[in-house]
Each structure stands twice: as C-alpha cells, then as structure tokens.
Amino acid sequence: MFPITVGLNHRTAPVEIREKVSFHPSQVNKALAELNTLSALNGVVLLNTCNRLEIYAATPEVESGVSAIRSFLARHGNLQEEDLSQYLYVHGLYESVRHLFRVVAGLDSMVMGETQILGQVAEAYDRSSQMNASNKVIHTIFQNALAIGKRVRAETQIDQHPTSVSYTAVELAKQTFGDVKDKSILIMGAGEMSALTAKHLVANGASTVMVSNRSFQRAQTLAQEFSGKAIPFEDIDTALVETDIVISATAANHFVILPERMQRVMKLREYRSLLMIDIAVPRDIHPGVNECEGVTLFDIDDLRGVVDAHQKAREDAAIQAEKILEEEMGRFMKWHNSLFAVPTIIALQRRGEQVRDVMVKNALNKLGPIDAKQEKVIRSMANSIVTHLLHPPIANLKEVAHTSQGHLYTEILQNLFDLDVDQESPHAGRSVHHAVGHHSNQG
C-alpha cells in the first residue's frame, strides 16, 4: 500500500481556483464518503483549509490512485482535468509523508509556523477515522505526523510567536493605517477565523468591534466575548457606512458583497476610505469592489506580502524544525521499509523450504531404500543449497531495507520469486516511535 498526496495550495493555485475546488463544511463528509468508495484508494483523509485542499490516500497502485483523485477534484470543481492539473502537486510514498510532516509543523503554510494547522490536520484525521475511511497506513502516518507537529512546537517554540491568517490580516490593517487603535472594525462571520481576528484586533486596541453573521445568535455570542456589538445580517449596510475596516470570513459559498452594493455604501460614506480584507475561501467580496472609489480590498493571497515582527524568530525556529523532520523521516523510512523487508524474507525462506522439501522427497523416492546416514547427507546437502542460494538476496535486502530503495527492492524480490507475502504485518498498526523505540521529552 503506497501513501500518496494530491492537492493545491496558496503557492500553486490562485484563490480563484482554490475556491472552485474547496469544500463547504457541510460538503466535507459527503466528499470523504465518495472518495472512500473509489476502488483505486484504500484509506483517505481530506484536508480542507482556507489556503489548501489536500487529499491523502493509501493506494495499491500510485498512478491509478492519483488519477482517481484528479478526476474527483475536477468533477467537484466543474473543471477540465487538464486545466486543473497545472495547479496540482502530487507526492508519492516518502515525499507524501515528508509533505504531511512539513504541513503539521507549520513549515508549508502561507505564514510560517501558523498555529491553526495542527488542529485542522487532527480534525481531518479524526473525521476520516470516524467515517471508517482510514486504514493502517493512514493511521500510522497521521498519528506520527501529529506527534511530530507537537514535538516541533515543544522543541522550537515556533508557536510562541503569534501567527495565523487572522493575525496576518490584522498586521495588514496595521500596516495600512499605521495603527488600528481607535478604529472601528466590522467582522463578517462568526466562526473560528472570525474569533481569532477579533482577539488580535482587541489586543491591538481596536475601539469598536462589530460582528455580523447570518445567525444573529452566533454574532451575539462572539460580540459579547470581546465586548463588541452584534449586527443583524440584514443591517450590514449600516455597519459598512460606519466602520473603518472590514474583515470578512464567512462560510458562504458565494459572494456576499458585490460592487453595486459597495457603490451605494461608499456614496453614503461620502467616499471616506474603507479597508476591506477578505480572508474567506471561497471569497466573500467580489474583486470588482476594489474599483469602487475609496475602497482598498485585499484577499487572502495578498497576505503573503505581509511582514511582521515575529518573522525572523519563526525563520530561526524553522531551521531547527527542519532538522527534527529529517530525523523523523529517517525513523519513518526505517520503520516503513521493515514492514516489507521482514515479511519478504520470511516468505522467501518459506519458498526455499517448500522447494527443498519437494525435491528431497522426489530424490528419496527415486533412490529407493537407503540408510539413515545417507538420508541425513541428502537432507543436509539440500539445506545447504537453499541456504547458500538465498543468502545473497536476503543479505542484500537487509542492507538496503533502511534506505529509500528498500521498498523497491522488496517489491522486485517478491515478483522475481513469486512470493506470497503477508502484508498485514503485526507491526503495521504500531506507531513509528513505538516500533523503533523512540522516546521524546514530551509528556
């Protein structure tokens, strides 16, 4: 079973493409269930965030597995496969595992070291497990990835420097205005991203925080948490006239704010400057709004250019984190290759014994009556032939088992000798750390 990853993120695809293939929270379970029915896949995790959509899977045949996922994403996004493929990245076997390790460590994020991704990966893995969409390979990889994510944060303190998309959005507002102190803020949406944004705004001295959401009760709950004001969604135009900064992070799957609406709002504002930051995927604010007089609009991709005071500290922590990941990758490769090497050696020895027993029996039948000493010599010679014949492939397999070629070597050996290998190794469900005797300093 081979691990693979197919996905796109903020580096490979613009927000216009990401929003087409992203899944609304209400769609994720259905999508995962559909992926789980694909015959080319055996174990699936769907990771869907504002900056990435990735499908991790185990497959008996890499090309078929990748093709199945590409077709699935193209259908979902109503795109031609050839058009979508230019934005996708594909990782197989160890590169798939390495990629996941970098994701959970926060090293593959728009904002290096971001704090939310570890929880998002854990949630995606838990959902897969609850829906019986996982398998032993996926379980092991994700359990170890989450442990590594925690280890990186414990040993590097990379998460001690506030980082997230919402934090960076506030940094962008500060860089635009010089300060958000005494500024009026309207937050559209009442989810986790909105709550984090409100937290950073209040910490930076925002004078008024207004929250608007389709569920007024959720808007009230979030507003009360930060001594803010809840705005009914139907009264949002009034808030748009009053506010200085809009940060939008709703879960809508369509544009909430259109240019025509903002033209009316800006006329009522007498074209007083308004900063709008759209951190939702799919986007909440139509890009044409940026053409309205007095409006400055940024979307989530614009956050990449934001530099904050903690960037140098995170870069230093990232160097240490990369060293940890290399160590963990070596441990994983050693464990993973052992899963294939040990059963292959056992199967090869068993095949040699089977051939030996058949040949000895045939020889004894042809010889007729012989004494015990003669039979012992024949059996000893047969054992010796099998042992000497199998020694080179077994020795070579042991030598390469813990290298990147180990898995390939075992597969070739299995095909050459037509081996019936028991892949359900008793070690297959164990974590890498446990299997190789790893001990960390974490509690």
UniProtKB/TrEMBL annotation:
Keywords: NADP, Oxidoreductase, Porphyrin biosynthesis
Site (Important for activity): 99
InterPro entries in UniProt: 4pyrrol_synth_GluRdtase, 4pyrrol_synth_GluRdtase_dimer, 4pyrrol_synth_GluRdtase_N, GluRdtase_dimer_dom_sf, GluRdtase_N_sf, NAD(P)-bd_dom_sf, Shikm_DH/Glu-tRNA_Rdtase
Pathway the protein takes part in: Porphyrin-containing compound metabolism; protoporphyrin-IX biosynthesis; 5-aminolevulinate from L-glutamyl-tRNA(Glu): step 1/2
Transmembrane spans: none
Catalysed reactions, semicolon-separated: (S)-4-amino-5-oxopentanoate + tRNA(Glu) + NADP(+) = L-glutamyl-tRNA(Glu) + NADPH + H(+)
Enzyme kind, highest EC tier: oxidoreductase
GO molecular function: glutamyl-tRNA reductase activity; NADP binding
Gene3D superfamilies noted in UniProt: Glutamyl-tRNA reductase, N-terminal domain, NAD(P)-binding Rossmann-like Domain
Residues holding NADP(+): 189-194
A biological process from GO: protoporphyrinogen IX biosynthetic process from glutamate
UniProt: substrate binding residues: 49-52, 109, 114-116, 120
Catalytic residues, chain numbering: 50 (nucleophile)
Segments forming a coiled coil: none
Domain Glutamyl-tRNA reductase N-terminal: start-end pairs: 6-156
Entry function: Catalyzes the NADPH-dependent reduction of glutamyl-tRNA(Glu) to glutamate 1-semialdehyde (GSA).
Known partners and oligomeric status: Homodimer.
HAMAP family in the cross-refs: Glu_tRNA_reductase
Similarity comment: Belongs to the glutamyl-tRNA reductase family.
Additional comment: During catalysis, the active site Cys acts as a nucleophile attacking the alpha-carbonyl group of tRNA-bound glutamate with the formation of a thioester intermediate between enzyme and glutamate, and the concomitant release of tRNA(Glu). The thioester intermediate is finally reduced by direct hydride transfer from NADPH, to form the product GSA.
Comment text on domains: Possesses an unusual extended V-shaped dimeric structure with each monomer consisting of three distinct domains arranged along a curved 'spinal' alpha-helix. The N-terminal catalytic domain specifically recognizes the glutamate moiety of the substrate. The second domain is the NADPH-binding domain, and the third C-terminal domain is responsible for dimerization.
Protein name: Glutamyl-tRNA reductase
Organism, as annotated: Desulfitobacterium dichloroeliminans (strain LMG P-21439 / DCA1)
